[in-house]
Write a structure and sequence with these properties.
Number of helices: 2
Shape: flat
Oligomer: single chain
Helix content: 40-55%
């Protein structure tokens, strides 16, 4: 079932965070990762896993939009890093 509303999903489809997951999310909040996520497509659904506790399933359309936004933000961040490096050389 593909649905943007968590409450509309059957109870069997809902993921319930356990205490370990909640603890790990709290301990890693604010960390910056340098490891790319694993991405797969199965039965028309895009699955994004990692780093850390990231585990997301998206429709193909939502994955397209997310991909565009990630690329745009990545290019912006690289430009910011390059500007900082150039300022340091002066």
């Amino acid at each position: 079932m593909i649905c943007g509303d968590y409450a509309a999903r059957p109870i069997s489809d809902r993921r319930k965070p356990n205490l370990l997951w909640v603890f790990l999310r709290t301990m890693t909040k604010g960390r910056i990762f340098d490891t790319p996520s694993d991405v797969t497509a199965i039965d028309g659904i895009v699955s994004l896993k990692g780093p850390d506790a990231v585990d997301v399933e998206l429709t193909a359309g939502a994955a397209d939009g997310t991909s565009d936004r990630l690329l745009e933000a990545s290019l912006k961040a690289r430009g910011q890093i390059l500007r900082e490096q150039q300022r340091g050389k002066r």
